[in-house]
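We modelled the chain as a single entity of 561 amino acids. Its sequence is:
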Amino acid sequence: MTHNSVWPKWMVHRGNTAYFLLVVVVIQCFSGSRAVAQKFYPDHPVVQEMVNKGMAFLESGAGGGRTAGFGGEGPALVVGLCAFKVTGDPEHPLVKAGVAQALELAHAVSLPSFRPEEKSTYIMSVAGMLLPSVNVDTYGQATKQIRDYLLRIQKPNGGFGYTTGGNEKFGDISQTQYVMLAFWTMNQTGIEVPNEAVIRTLNFLLLAQEQQSGGWPYMHDGGSTTQGGVTNSLTAAGLSAMLIGGDLLGMYRSKMVENQEEEGIVPLAFRRVIPEAERKKVSFDKTKIEGSSKRSEAWFAANPYTRDVNFHYYYVYSKERYESFLEITKGKQTKSPDWYNEGVKMLQASQGADGSWGNKKDDASSFIPPNVATSFSLLFLIRSTQKAIGDLSEAMNQGIGEIPDDVGSITISGNKIVNKNATNSIDDALKMLEDDSKVEGEDGLAPDRMLLASDPKQRKEQLNRFVRLLNAKDYKARQIAAKMLGRGDDLDLVPALIYALTDPDPRVPFFAEQSLRIISRQLDTYHLPKRDKLTDQDKAKASLQWKRWYLSVRPDYVFVD
């Protein structure tokens, strides 16, 4: 503070200098604690600036090169996956380059003459994540070829690892993690992965985990022989693979999601309800995974992370992954957890002036090139695993405002966070939305707690009224209509939502695409770029992509432009 500061009277009239200094120190301490307590999240301006700089580095084409750990096709696939997760644009040059590489690999593994290279398990796993994420309809067959290859190379002990060299008998914890993540991605997009393969992998991981300490070594033969010591990176990989396997078997579902489904909040497209007659029986003891998870968490508590320059950014991505799956098992998703805030601060300090990570002399890895290190860092910053899992509360409320840490306890009313116990009649809300004199400034019209009618005829009539509201004069009515139509779970609504992509309001197109993603079941597809101001070209491009998808499911439909 300067000598011109305006001090409270009680402070000015104190004659005790020591008391005055104590007050100043206390004020400074509180100011400092506010700075330390700053909370980050993927849409935070600081994080967005870091992501934009990192993407600019990747788009420059710099930072490549072959290293001991990631060579050949690996970097292009990792960079392509990262670019898609950040931009959601399948036409992005980096995404297209990664997809082209993945398709070549998918074709190669289907040939009898295919001979794997040393890192093929890693490479095929990333290819198996990229293709279905971008477009499972287009690349589903190629993804199945990769799946079948990975199933063929699963070791007798249940793990995955090197297929050449002297370590073929060992399951590699790191490589096993990547295969499990590929299987999980495939399963999420509708490509079946045999439960038997997943169970064998879980049994391998349980055998490989040190029973006393809870950590995982580098390799294990499924018996009594290990290679390499226990590290933070490998324990993160083992725990991640274990939790992914449990989710693949359907053992873990967020309690928040279950509660929302019971209350009727979650749209039909999000509901993962399988008839009991069709539900696969899983013969695996869930308590084994829970015990394994507790042991590994205890290991982390007893072994604080120390930076390993060669595997640091690999660990960063693994950390985001297992923490996100832990949220599922614990039934609570947190917007700004401590581990994420610490990671953001660390990455903020280590990002290069060119936007890269792992490119400085004292930060360079002999295993991971800068473009891969940068991709791992960006995947952490955008919380790509949580995004893939699907944070339903934030997905439904995207772009409306600040969300508290415990997203399960809130809902949105208009543009404000409110207690989710408040409810509204959908018909009353429709009447108010349809009356131009009553819409402006209303905060009780958002549909987060309003349920469509269960009667098919009444429900259809309500949805038709929301479709008509896409032409309302008031932007708020159009926003709510675009958002609400995603709950209709009706392909007939798609043309109206595609029309809403061109709305002049800055938020209506985003809500319209959110509804299109729900109806199409393509929850990880984004054709609108993630920026505040959309151009007419942005909207036209997204409209074209969604029209192409709709014509793939309804080829007889004719769009009238």
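As a brief sanity check on the tokenised model: Strands lie at 171-172, 219-220, 226-227, 410-413, 416-419. The first helix runs from residue 9 to 12.
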